[in-house]
Known about the structure:
By secondary structure, the chain is mainly beta. The chain has a domain at about 115-310. Helices cover about 15% and strands about 45% of the residues. It has helices at about 5-30, 75-85, 215-225; strands at about 50-55, 60-65, 115-120, 125-135, 140-150, 150-165, 165-180, 180-190, 195-200, 200-205, 235-240, 245-260, 260-270, 275-280, 290-295, 300-310. The strands form two sheets. The protein has a 14-stranded antiparallel beta sheet. It is globular, with a radius of gyration of 47 Å. About 20% of the residues are buried.
Amino acid sequence: MRTNPRLRLAINVIVGILLGIVISQMLSGCSDELPLAPAPSAGIAGEASAEVESINGSKTAARISPTQANVVTTISPAAVATTSSATSPTAVAPAAVSVTAPVVSNTMPLPQTKERYHLSWDGKLEGDATRSLSCKATQCRYETHASVVGLASFSEISDFQWAHGQVEFQRYERTLQLLFKQVARIEKQADGSIRSERRGKVYQYAGKAGLVDILNIEVQLRADRLANRAPKASYPLADSKGISAISLHREADETLTVAGKARHSEVYVRQDGKRKTTLWLDPAQAFLPLQIIHQDGAETYRMIWLGDAAK
């Protein structure tokens, strides 16, 4: 049987067309259920929709063009932070932290009072004493006056300046009246040197920063403890013949019964050479001395607090 050449040609054309369609679909990678995306064109015509999750977890609809679909962009953390703060209406830049150095006041922190004490001199002589602190602006005076009526008297005066949380030595004077009068003076000069007089002799020596005297070191100790600071272990002391070191250390706390009441006290010992002073300080009264025992060679005196002299 011969086939009509025209029919054979028509069949070949149809088969070729069908094969072309099948091959085209295989090369496109798309199934019959998903239509091919339209070719990119100008304007918004080839854009596709996508959902993008933001950093804070919310989802935002974004439009991504096919030309951008395969582009990977790397964003640094700094850029993310900048973009977030710029676009988010609730983003707030962290407040700057201000660090301020502590300010030490030039105002004397200790109460300026006059206190009464009972005096015992070598365990044989009994008397009375007063101790007072007074200031005008930064100029201060700390003084002790004690007496055994008709027999002896003793006084100590310390003039100093209170600045930047520290005593600044200016003048110390001690007077003892026992049979005859004995006076010792130590004073800072205009040029910063120290001049002293004792038993008719005069001494002069160079000054030093942080200088204290035997009395105002107590003010420094009390002010340090009131500010919850540990006192220094040693201070340069203005003495009659020159500068010496005075040590200061704390001993075990004690409870004293004074002025009719049991009171907790911190105990400190200051010492220079043969002179040793033990102080019982009351934290409840700005570290007021409740008891003082001073030993200077063979001499010893004790003071026990009786109360505020103004009451």
